[in-house]
GNAT family acetyltransferase
Amino acid sequence: MEITIIEYDPSYAFQTVKMWRESKEQAIEQKAMHSFEDHVFFLNNILLKNNKVTLAIEASGEQVVGILACNENWVNQLYVHTQYQGRGIGNRLLNLAKQQSEGRLFLYTFEVNKKAQKFYERNGFRIVGRGNDNEEQLEDIKYEWTKP
């Protein structure tokens, strides 16, 4: 399976949000709090303001398999399609965030998402904080990565 990394294009909004919601729901075992339409609005009008949004697409161009939203200091969203996890897509997206960073990145992940914790720790992130300042009211973990 060949994956292409592209800059976000709004024509992929529906597919992107569908994949994002399914991946997040599986990871935290909680249904989305906002409507699908609100999620599309967030992607197209809010997330893009302070983040570079990148998609991983099957080479055919017909399936969104991952999303990365980041800036030079933060990975704000990183999700991979549930059926494509474990194939290196998350690594490719995370490495892109590292390359675009200023040598230091932060991110949050939910404490219930053990799979994400293992992934980030394998990729050089270390825990620097904990809390629950999120709309899901779940405990979360703040991670930091510093360029070696």
